[in-house]
Amino acid sequence: MSWPGFCKLRQGAARAHVASGWGQVRVADRARPSARLTERRRHLGVLVNPEDALLRPARLYGAEDVRRRECPIPAVPGVYGWYFASPPSLVPLEGCYRWNGLILLYVGISPKAPPTNGRPPSRQTIRSRIRYHYRGNAAGSTLRLTLGSLLAEDLGIGLRRVGSGNRLTFGRDGEKRLSAWMAEHAQVVWTPAEQPWTLEEELIRSRVLPLNLDQNRNGSFHGQLSALRAAQRAQARLLPVER
Question: What is the pLDDT of residue 4?
Fold first, then answer.
């Protein structure tokens, strides 16, 4: 057979192969990510649908995972969700989302939406923010302020004025007790997002998240939780400054 004839024969076979549907199937197979790649994406929190990383995570991470030197959290903007094995007893759990025996009670973001007054946007990431929630203090973490207010009686802690007297934390010992409680009962998961405030708003609107106060004024627990935090602040202002 001549070379031109051979080429025509190959072209005809290729057209028949595609027309039969086999060609499309093989292209789709090549486009489908492998199981290893999918697991790697899950590990990094990178999924086609960001909600999957928060609501159907391959795994959750505890304090030891987050605090270690080789932290698995990427230093990027994103959204994170906090799950609890044994939530504070005051928290109503009806309607809350559950995953593998744990309960989602709070979502947060980093950074916040860019300010509208012309000031530069925050450069904070989900890595720095989640780490601070686990090992910081109530002055810089609304989640720690909320948990400490709910657990004040159980842990024997209370909000105090510290330093110059303008900052409110649970004091050195109180923050240690709170960190220990979080290490035992709280786990976190995250997903990168270019505009995390958009996904956060959607989650607060569509899910029951009793520990979220911002954008959640219609939540059934909003009034009681706000009152507990206010009572802690008021009591702290009556006490001497902790040096």
Answer: 46
